[in-house]
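protien #1 (seq + structre)
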Amino acid sequence: MRASTRQRLVLAICCLSIIISLMDVSIVNVALPSIHSDLGTSMSGLQWTVDAYTLVLAVLLPLAGSTADRIGRRRIFQLGLIVFGLGSLACSLAPGIGWLVAARAVQAVGGTMLNPVAMAIVVTTFPERAERAKAIGVFASMSGLAFALGPILGGALVATWGWRSIFWVNLPIVVIAVVCTQLFVPESRADAARRFDPIGQLLLVLTLGSLVAAIIESGRWSTPTTAGLLVFTALAATALVAYERRRTEPLLELRLFRSLRFSSALVIAVVAYCCFGAYLFVTTLYLQNVRGVSALAAGLTLLPIGVAILIISPYAGRMVSARGPRLPLLIAGSALVVSALASFTIGATTPLPILLGIYLLFGIFVGMINPPLVNTAVSEMPTDMAGLAASMVSTGRQVGITLGVALAGTVIASTPLAG
């Protein structure tokens, strides 16, 4: 087989993995009303159905990348596919909301081994600089495609075969990807992988897990319990910072925060994707519970967001290269503000063209925000720290989505959106 053909096959395999792992962030949202009806769960159960996935992604992404660098990227990538497939199967068979949430967490454990590891495989597969840049561009565009496909595919599957079918679609893709990885993807390792940081990993899990639990369960638990969780969050975060400052190779490289540009990019990533997670969660419930449309119609209504992300993200990347990150960030912020203000006017009978226009604006925000964030985060970093900085921004995005869903669900728990 020609080297170029093998390279394209490896890229296709990696793109498949990023599509299924990221699509499971958006595809589940369309199924939430059906899950609520079938399993009889509360709003907090729906929040955990989404957040169990994004929370595990957030806390384990750094670990997955460093582990793959140490023991082999192909090996970890295949393991991630298998775990993701088993988690998907468990989700489809879940008899209750507790089982579904646990299975979503298993899915996410597999997902953490796909995204950063697939990027590393792409980089090592394309040694020539120009070809590598093209491959990374194709790989990065898959996030927009995943979001565009998620609501539509999810809506069609829910409308035809029920909510469990949204997890079936992953299984044949996983089987094909595992076999093709064994056949075509070469094994690779980093020359100097970062050491495992188990205490830092545990403290990160405790910090984010207790914070999300406090937000999601604040409407059901007593105030002292919620306050206790918030105090525990503060203590765990303090211990995390104190411990990581003493390590030579920490899980969270605190030296990166000495860069104002990096710190700003990370904060913007968390806030922007908090808005994204909240908006998607609320919008899918609004379309089905308030407007009464089918899951498929809801997915099609969200199409402007996915199309805007798919089309605008590459253009935003070129804009960053030509003019720097400031203009794309200004456009993204303006689109977010206008779409958010316009969303306050949405009601049960808002005309569909107005809805589509608002969702298009929101899609422009999401599509325009990613390239300047990564560019800003890594622009002042030495070469050996650039990958770590980019991965921390990815973690910040997942943290933002998790917090957005937690906050949104807590706010709307007592409204008609809750069903």
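ok now protien #2
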Amino acid sequence: MQDEVIFYTNPQSRGRLVRWMLEEVGAPYRTEVLEYDGTMKAPAYLKINPMGKVPAIVHRGEVVTECAAICAYLADTFPQAGLAPLPEERASYYRWMFFAAGPLESAITDFKALGVEPDAQKQKMVGYGTYAAVLDNLQAWLREHTYICGERFTAADIYVGAQITWGVEFGTIEKRPEFIDYAKRVTARDAHRRATAKDDALEEEKV
């Protein structure tokens, strides 16, 4: 199929986020499951993503990697899904999608995964400043907005929503009321349920 998306993933990866996006836009797609330290590092896949990581997509002969980029690409490429920002939503859409891809993920990785907490001097160097500042900033926004762009669900809610949902579930993001409520809203969608069921089934096949 000319418009088919080839989706490279592993059910124990951020590929779950991209599958959710694919289910939301309704794009025809084919799943290629790769194994860590196996097919993910094989020459054939390294031609697609030299980083040897998933997820990645190939669409119309073009490669897109990085979850935020994939979400933005699919929203723009399949506009009928209504997940791309309206002109008046673009500022919030891009601001918070890139906030989650940059400061939020970096703060979580440093503070929670690596046990790194920058001192006062280094806080001036890192983009996120402090882990607490990142969470406070995001919490304040969600306190005043149903979704990232206001009252309408967009692709930004898939990317930010997945980050918050996983963070709350695995303890890398504090269980603040705004985060819990927002996670419940975004994961109640049918596309999220379908995507989760498909990835869970892939995981069960390995057991």
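The chain has a mean pLDDT of 96.
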